[in-house]
Write a structure and sequence with these properties.
Elements (H helix, E strand, L loop, with lengths): L1 H35 L7 E5 L5 E5 L5 H6 L18 E6 L5 E6 L5 H14 L3 E6 L2 E9 L24 E7 L1 H74 L9 H28 L6 E4 H18 L3 E6 L4 E4 L1 H17 L6 E9 L2 E9 L32 H11 L3 E7 L2 E9 L3
Parallel strand pairs: 9-11
Antiparallel strand pairs: 1-2, 1-4, 3-4, 3-7, 5-6, 6-7, 8-10, 11-12, 12-14, 13-14
Helix pairs in contact: 1-4, 4-5, 5-8, 6-7, 7-8
C-alpha cells in the first residue's frame, strides 16, 4: 500500500503538471490569436442597415493599421492567410451598442452575427468563451481609440456611457480544435493513469509477495524449528523424570537395585546431549566462521571412507569408490570431513542388508562433484523437497528408530553452502543419491 500510494502520487502529479503546462500554453496561444484577429480579414466588410441588409464598405476606414500591415496579396487583392489561421469574426458596434459591420471570412448573415453578439453580451464580461454553431469561440472587446473609450465596464447596465465616440469591436476566434485537443489530452491522461496504476499495482503486488516470501518461509521454519526442538527435548526430559520418580518411590532400595532406572536415565541424557551438540554444531556451521585452507579432497574422502568400512562390513554392504586423484579445494577441512561422515553414515543407516554404497568424486570445469549412492527403499517424491529441513524425517525407515533427530542432513547442507557449494538429492528405482558440488582450486 505504501508503494502504491507513493507511485500514485508521483504518476498523478506528473500527469497533472503535463496537463497544466499544456493548458497554460494553449490558453496563451488562444489569447494571442484573439489579439491577432484584426490582422487578417478581407479588404471589404459588410455594414448592416437598420433593416438588417448589408452594404459593402471599405475596411481601411475602420482599421488603417491592419490594412497597411497586410502583405503578400493575391491577384484579386485578398490577404494571404497565415499558416496558423483560425476562423475569426470581428463585430463592429455602433455608439448605441448595436451591430454596425462585420469583417469575417465566414458566410454568415445579419441574424447569425446578431445571435453571436447576443451570446457575447450574455457572458457579462470583456472576454470569455461562447458556443455557437457547435463550435467554441474565444472573444475579447476592443476599441478603435482606447484613449477615448475605456474597456472596463463596457457591458455595464448603461453601455451608452462608455460609447460616446469611436467604434467598439468584438474580436472572436474559433478555438474548437484547441479545446478539443485539451479534452482529448485530459481523457488520454486519465486513461493512461488508470492503466499505469493498474499495471503498477500488480507489479508491486508481485514484487511485494516475492520479497516477503523468503521472510515468511524463514519465520515459518523458525517456528517449526522451535516446536520440533522443544518436542525432541521434552521426550528425554520426561523419561528422565519418570525414572527418577521410580527410584524415589523406593527409598530403602540399594543403588544396585535401581541400576535399571539409572541406565534409562543415562541413555536419555546421552540422547539429549547429542541433540544439543548437533544444534550447536548446526549453529556454528551456519555462522560462516571457518578457517579455509587448500587441501586434497581426494585423500580426505578415501580416509573418511576407510573409517566407515567397519560399520559397512557388519551389514555386509558392498562399498565401492571412484575417486579422481589430486582434487584440491579451499575450505574448512574439519567441516568437509563432517559433511562426508554425515553422507556415509546416512547411506549406511538406510541401505538394506547385503546392499551396496558407492562414493565418487569427479572434477569438471573448475568444479568438483562428490556423490554418495546407496540401494534401499528410497525417498518418495513428496519428501525430497524437505529432506534437508531440520528435524525432518521420512516415515518408516527414516524415523527416530535409527537413533537420529533429523539434523544430520541440515548440518550437511549448511556446511556445503557456507563453503560456496550446492547440495542435491535424487531417488528413483530404489537408488538414492546425495551429492554436492564445490569449486576446485586446481
Amino acid at each position: 500500500m505504501l508503494n502504491m500510494v507513493t507511485l500514485s502520487v508521483v504518476v498523478l502529479a506528473t500527469f497533472a503538471i503535463i496537463y497544466a503546462v499544456t493548458y497554460s500554453n494553449t490558453i496563451d496561444e488562444i489569447e494571442k490569436k484573439v489579439q491577432r484577429v484584426p490582422e487578417f480579414f478581407p479588404r471589404s466588410a459588410a455594414a448592416f442597415t437598420s433593416d438588417g441588409s448589408s452594404v459593402e464598405t471599405d475596411s481601411s476606414a475602420n482599421n488603417n493599421a491592419a490594412s497597411s500591415s497586410a502583405t503578400n496579396t493575391d491577384t484579386q487583392g485578398s490577404n494571404v492567410l497565415p499558416a496558423d489561421f483560425s476562423p475569426s469574426i470581428i463585430l463592429f458596434l455602433k455608439s448605441d451598442g448595436e451591430l454596425n459591420s462585420v469583417k469575417t471570412y465566414l458566410d454568415l448573415g445579419f441574424a447569425e452575427h446578431q445571435e453571436v453578439l447576443e451570446l457575447v453580451r450574455q457572458t457579462g464580461g470583456n472576454s470569455g468563451q461562447i458556443s455557437y454553431a457547435e463550435r467554441r469561440w474565444q472573444f475579447a472587446f476592443a476599441v478603435s481609440d482606447p484613449f477615448e473609450i475605456p474597456i472596463q465596464g463596457i457591458l455595464a447596465a448603461n453601455p451608452m456611457d462608455f460609447m460616446r465616440s469611436g467604434t467598439m469591436q468584438v474580436n472572436l476566434v474559433d478555438i474548437t480544435e484547441s479545446t478539443d485537443q485539451l479534452t482529448r489530452l485530459l481523457i488520454m491522461l486519465i486513461i493512461a493513469s488508470i492503466v499505469i496504476l493498474t499495471i503498477l499495482f500488480f507489479v508491486s503486488l508481485y514484487l511485494a509477495n516475492r520479497s516477503i516470501k523468503p521472510i515468511e518461509e524463514t519465520w515459518s521454519k523458525q517456528r517449526q524449528f522451535v516446536t520440533d526442538a522443544s518436542h525432541e527435548l521434552k521426550t528425554p526430559i520426561a523419561i528422565i523424570g519418570a525414572n527418577l520418580d521410580a527410584m524415589a518411590s523406593d527409598s530403602e532400595a540399594s543403588v544396585g537395585s535401581q541400576k535399571k532406572w539409572m541406565d534409562y536415565a543415562h541413555h536419555e541424557l546421552d540422547r539429549m546431549g547429542k541433540l544439543i551438540n548437533d544444534l550447536l554444531y548446526l549453529a556454528q556451521s551456519e555462522d560462516g566462521k571457518s578457517e579455509c585452507l587448500d587441501f586434497d579432497l581426494s585423500k580426505l574422502i578415501k580416509d573418511t571412507a576407510t573409517s566407515m568400512e567397519a560399520i559397512l562390513y557388519e551389514k555386509n554392504i558392498r562399498f565401492t569408490q571412484n575417486i579422481q586423484e589430486s582434487v584440491i579445494i579451499n575450505a574448512d577441512e574439519s567441516k568437509i570431513t563432517q559433511a562426508l561422515v554425515i553422507l556415509l553414515d546416512n547411506a549406511a543407516k538406510y541401505t538394506d542388508q547385503d546392499g551396496w554404497i558407492e562414493i565418487s568424486a569427479t572434477k569438471d570445469k573448475g568444479w568438483v562433484k562428490v556423490s554418495v549412492k546407496n540401494s534401499g527403499e528410497g525417498i518418495s517424491l513428496e519428501d525430497l523437497p524437505n529432506i534437508f529441513d531440520r528435524f525432518y524425517r521420512v516415515d518408516k525407515s527414516r524415523s527416530t528408530k535409527s537413533g537420529g533427530y533429523g539434523l544430520g542432513l541440515s548440518i550437511f547442507r549448511a556446511i556445503i553452502e557456507r563453503s560456496g557449494g550446492k547440495v542435491g538429492v535424487s531417488s528413483e528405482n530404489n537408488v538414492t543419491e546425495f551429492n554436492f558440488i564445490i569449486r576446485s582450486e586446481k
